[in-house]
Design a protein that fits this description.
two-stranded antiparallel ribbon, elongated, Ribonucleotide Reductase Protein R1, domain 1, mainly alpha, Fumarase C, Chain B, domain 1
Length: 469
């Protein structure tokens, strides 16, 4: 291993466990997520410091391990982590890959040669007082916390962008729709406000679930009992990790619980899925409202991002909402894998954490990137087609609902039927039969009247604008 450039497979004496893992698990072509590599390096860094404080490592050896771990945590030696993400052994191969990389880098820093484990041994020194079963889950929690917080931040961006559109479109009256059929009026701003509320819930849920990721089982070693770890080490190691990461981590009261149970990852995944569900719903609604432009609803205009067809000139597709939808489906599918994996732990350990880590961390990262692009490449540039919105509203029978308090349900239903038969609007028929005059119609169908609780056109004193007919 020379300055982050050599391949571990070419140094067999230095990396026997890593080489064997590469041979066994070359299946997906996906490496371990960089956030997990960073977090695991920080765990090793904290362990070395705690072992030194406990008198188990001398200052020179601990210092070299800490320096190597700090380098990896900063993104160095990334090409040395070559084990496939989908591996058996509950993450042991990733743990050993880290142990061997750090040992060899520490040996280099001490002036030795790779593989001379008399100076720094992967197991006796780097893995001292640890097990894969407490270091890997702890690293996964640290990585997940960071990505959850990053996703929550992008959710805030999306929420703010939607709220800006809520204000911008507050006066745009349009046809509401239920079950893909005409319904009572809403404003375009109200629709975007509802989108914003859904995203706000996702943001809050993700922000709060981060608290449950803070408890770690570091110090529990193999099954949570802490065998082969000194009390002094156990007392200090989480404190060291907290200082290194800047996260509010705490040692779990019951280390066996966190060693064998992975339900918190299923919980986080479920909330990420819920966020994906809401984004898919919003994306679908936007594509429908922007459909056309000549042969669809065309109530809004999405910003044109790129050429839409290699054969149809001028065609522009809703590529950002389509991308959002596909990512949402990917996250939903990953949640099923995570759910199954978390349910499949047996007795004192869940051996399927590698597939949990792969799907959870990639899902968090992917949805965060998607959310930011959704906000800035799509939502920000949306404009309203007010004329089209008004047209669909006036040509529908939905406005008859506002007349029900004045002319009764049955007479209003007759107007709807006749309007469809004669290809006329509700307004035209209401005026034709002198059920209402122009001034009264405008008062009843004002956006502020049609889109709030109560009877449209009701006076401030509570009386109806018109006598019942």
């Amino acid at each position: 291993m020379e300055n982050n450039s050599s391949n571990l497979q070419q140094t067999p004496l230095a990396t026997p466990n890593t080489r064997r893992a590469v041979e066994n698990f070359a299946v997906s072509g996906c490496p371990v997520h960089p956030a997990l590599v960073q977090a695991l390096a920080e765990v090793k860094w904290a362990a070395a410091k705690a072992n030194q404080r406990a008198g188990l490592l001398d200052e020179k050896t601990a210092g070299a391990i800490c320096a190597a771990a700090r380098e990896v945590a900063s993104g160095g030696l990334a090409d040395q982590f070559i084990v496939d993400a989908l591996q058996g052994g509950a993450g042991t191969s990733t743990n050993m890959n880290m142990n061997e990389v750090l040992a060899n880098r520490a040996i280099e820093l001490l002036g030795g040669h790779n593989g001379d484990y008399r100076l720094v041994d992967p197991l006796s020194h780097v893995n001292l007082s640890q097990s894969t079963n407490d270091t890997y889950p702890t690293a996964l929690r640290v990585a997940a916390i960071r990505l959850v917080l990053a996703l929550s931040e992008t959710m805030a961006e999306l929420q703010n962008t939607l709220q800006e559109k809520e204000t911008q479109f507050a006066g745009v009256l349009k046809l509401g729709r239920t079950e893909m059929q005409d319904a009572v009026p809403v404003t375009l701003g109200q629709e975007f406000g509802a989108f914003a509320e859904a995203v706000a819930r996702d943001r809050w849920r993700l922000y709060k679930v981060e608290e449950r990721l803070r408890q770690v089982n570091l110090g529990g070693t193999a099954v949570g009992t802490g065998l082969n770890a000194s009390r002094n080490y156990i007392y200090h190691v989480v404190e060291e990790l907290r200082d290194i990461t800047g996260l509010g981590l705490a040692r779990a009261e019951n280390l066996l619980d966190l060693t064998q149970n992975a339900d918190v990852f299923a919980e986080v995944s479920g909330l990420v899925k819920a966020a994906a569900v809401n984004q898919a719903k919003i994306a679908g609604d936007l594509m429908l409202m922007a459909s056309g432009p000549a042969g669809g609803l065309a109530e809004i205009n999405l910003p044109p991002r790129q050429m839409g067809s290699s054969i149809m000139p001028g065609k522009v597709n809703p590529v950002i909402p389509e991308m959002v939808t596909q990512v949402a489906w990917q996250v939903m599918g990953a949640d099923l894998v995570i759910t199954q994996a978390c349910a499949s732990g047996r007795l004192e350990l869940n051996s399927y954490l590698p597939v949990v880590a792969h799907n959870l961390l990639h899902g968090l990262e992917m949805l965060a990137k998607t959310t930011r692009r959704f906000a800035h490449l799509c939502i920000t540039g949306i404009t309203a087609n007010e004329a089209r919105c008004r047209r669909w509203l006036e040509e529908s029978g939905a406005l008859a609902t506002a007349l029900v308090p004045y002319i009764g349900y049955h007479r209003a239903a007759e107007l709807v039927e006749e309007a469809q038969r004669r290809n006329k609007t509700i307004k035209e028929l209401a005026l034709e039969y002198q059920l209402i005059n122009e001034e009264e119609w405008e008062a009843i169908t004002a956006p502020g009247q049609l889109t709030r609780p109560g009877i449209a056109g009701k006076r401030g004193d509570g009386s109806l604008l018109l006598p019942r007919r």
